[in-house]
Amino acid sequence: MSEIPTDLRYTASHEWARLNDDGTITIGITDHAQDALGDIVFVELPEVDSELSQGDASCVVESVKAASDIYMPITGVIVDTNQALVDEPEMINSSAYDDGWIFKIKPADEDDIEQLMDASSYEAECEDE
Amino acid sequence: MLIFEHSASGRKTKIQSTSGNEMPTDIPASLLRDEKPGLPEVSEMQAVRHYTSLSQKNFSIDTHFYPLGSCTMKHNPRVCNSLAMLPGFLSRHPLAPEKLSQGFMECMYELQEMLCDVTGMAGFSLAPMAGAQGEFAGIAMIRAYHDANGDTERKEILVPDAAHGTNPATATMCGYTVKEISTLANGDVDIDVLKEAVGPQTAGLMLTNPSTLGVFERRIEEIAKIIHDVGGLLYYDGANLNAILGKIRPGDMGFDVIHSNLHKTFSTPHGGGGPGSGAIGVAERLKPFMPMPGVKKIGNEFQWLTEEDCPHSIGRMSAFFGNPGVLLRAYIYMRLLGAEGMQRVGEFATLNANYMMAQLKARGFEAAIPDRYASHEFIITLKKQAKELNVSAMDFAKRLLDLGYHAPTTYFPLLVPECLLIEPTESEAKEMLDGFVEALVQVQQEAETDADMLHNAPYTMPVNRLDEVRAAKQLDLAWSAESKA
């Protein structure tokens, strides 16, 4: 069974979101997602300052099996990206929830994160697949 | 080993040189190169053995069963090859005058006509050089059509999530944004989602039917109506035309433009990058936009159809006229089969796929869409094996090579986890289909008893398991003496 930390929020498209103390939200893909994708070889990071709506494709993660869009869990502006992934995209495989974070956003509305699934709902979602 | 690695500096093969093969003396010194070209210096026998040995490493339709889903690796009749290589075809110069190209042009004219007949379209262009270029031409025509009507607010192309990756890529290349339409568990497009998604912004829908999930889209007429009602056009991706060949026609389903991979459905050698043909068919209203050149018939004479005839054409896809060698092979194949033969193609391709799916289900494999008939291909999912035995679809695929079978398509479509997409084609004998089923059963047994062995398969191939991460991240295709050192 894949790891699903209880302090994060999740989307059906397998992104996780973490609300930081400064009001930004860090986004990555779940352990389940990295496992399904296989070895990740390339990450196309989003541009800082781009404004994206919930559900928009924000960037692309490419593995030996497939290239997959990463969707915005909630509406916001990109404020930071994980440049370490440029050289070491495999960190998403080895550390999906920490070193493998992909980008940070400033949400249009901080409370939007409440719409996302909690760990137990996401676990049920993964079971269904 | 590369041919360059056989090279020894200064080696000459004088013994077999023809006499009078000395350095030319009539080229001005200023035009002579200063350095020797970077060619391998090998003996004639080294060169022959090198390339013969490479050819023997081929894993091809001529040596092995090749059920690579969505690729239609069928038999390529040798007669198509020999006729397409008649000197009159082979030596024809692309700029030769029409009166010296009448035979070739007649074949191409008839090919256009036959393709219209078998697909139900009003016109066909043979110009696109490959499937992806056919797609590009098709969507460019949709765009040209909307533009010609002053309908410039249509910015969106709809693509089901089961589609080939080329579909969204094509739409993007043509300046459209892509909206994905989800698929139901039974393999059909989710019509409710489609209804929600369409509107005045809809330029068209790209659909593969039968879909990449290996089932026929049953509500295609309803889908066509939804798209047409909002003023959009319907694009048919011909990847899976083999399944319905001679049985039903995309034109009758309501499609406005289709591309057909002639190299697949009409059996020219393919795999490994070409050459191909992505001929495109259109409904009457898109005819003015077809890419040039084509062939027209005036009286008993064949002439090139050009921009003078079709001023609204989207233009040219290449310097000349498609890939003539591929077009000729497809033409000869169609002439050999006739209308009746084409029906048999669709029937046997479908029968073979359904037979194999039934056999595999009976042996405990899980079909992705178990309750429906397969088209010419079907999917089994190894989700359970991955979870319980830690043996992936890739492990199965690699091990099949050791057992003498080309692997099916793996991990496509993306919707189905740990999948094998299997397309036997109409060409195979029952024994071969049974043999493949037995091979999969054997791999299943190995997965249960010796999973670790499978992780490193294949063992009998010229190259063993590739490091795919390294291959993707450190792609190195150019040889140089320095890099070797």
What topology does this entry show?
The complex is a heterodimer of chains A (129) and B (485).
Chain A: E1 9-10, E2 15-19, E3 25-29, H1 31-37, E4 40-44, E5 51-52, E6 57-63, E7 67-71, E8 76-81, H2 84-87, H3 91-94, E9 103-107, H4 119-128
Antiparallel strand pairs in A: 1-2, 2-3, 3-9, 4-6, 5-8, 6-7, 8-9
Chain B: H1 44-56, H2 78-84, H3 87-90, H4 102-119, E1 123-125, H5 131-148, E2 156-160, H6 166-173, E3 177-181, H7 191-197, E4 202-208, H8 220-229, E5 233-237, H9 250-253, E6 257-261, H10 262-265, E7 278-282, E8 294-298, E9 301-305, H11 324-362, E10 366-367, E11 378-381, H12 383-389, H13 393-402, E12 409-410, E13 419-422, H14 430-449, H15 451-455, H16 468-473, H17 481-484
Parallel strand pairs in B: 2-3, 2-4, 4-5, 5-6
Antiparallel strand pairs in B: 1-7, 6-7, 8-9, 10-11, 11-13, 12-13
Helix pairs in contact in B: 2-11, 4-11, 5-6, 11-14
CATH superfamily name of chain A? RNA polymerase II/Efflux pump adaptor protein, barrel-sandwich hybrid domain
Q: What low-confidence regions of chain A span 5 or more consecutive residues with pLDDT below 50?
A: none
| Strand ordering within the main sheet of chain A | 1-2-3-9-8-5
Q: How much helix is in the residues of chain A? A: 10-25%
Describe this protein's structure.
The complex is a heterodimer of chains A (129) and B (485). By secondary structure, chain A is α+β, with helices and mostly antiparallel strands. Chain A has a single domain, classed as OB fold (Dihydrolipoamide Acetyltransferase, E2P), CATH 2.40.50.100. Chain A is built from four helices and nine strands, in the order E-E-E-H-E-E-E-E-E-H-H-E-H. Chain A has a six-stranded antiparallel sheet with strand order 1-2-3-9-8-5. Chain A has a three-stranded antiparallel sheet with strand order 4-6-7. In chain A, strand 2 (15-19) and strand 3 (25-29) form a beta hairpin. The radius of gyration of chain A is 13 Å and the shape is globular. Chain A starts with 8 loop residues before the first strand and ends with a helix. The longest helix of chain B has 39 residues, at 324-362. In chain B, 38% of the residues lie in helices and 12% in strands. Chain B has three domains: 3-56, no CATH class; 78-337, Type I PLP-dependent aspartate aminotransferase-like (Major domain) (Aspartate Aminotransferase, domain 2, 3-Layer(aba) Sandwich), CATH 3.40.640.10; 343-472, Aspartate Aminotransferase, domain 1 (Alpha-Beta Complex). In chain B, helix 9 (250-253) links the parallel strand 5 and strand 6 (257-261). Chain B starts with 43 loop residues before the first helix and ends with a helix. Chain B has a seven-stranded mixed sheet, sandwiched between helices. A four-stranded antiparallel sheet of chain B has the order 10-11-13-12, with helices on one face. In chain B, strands 8-9 form a two-stranded antiparallel ribbon. Chain B is α/β, with parallel strands linked by helices and 485 residues long. Chain B is globular, with a radius of gyration of 25 Å. The interface between A and B is small, with 12 and 8 residues.
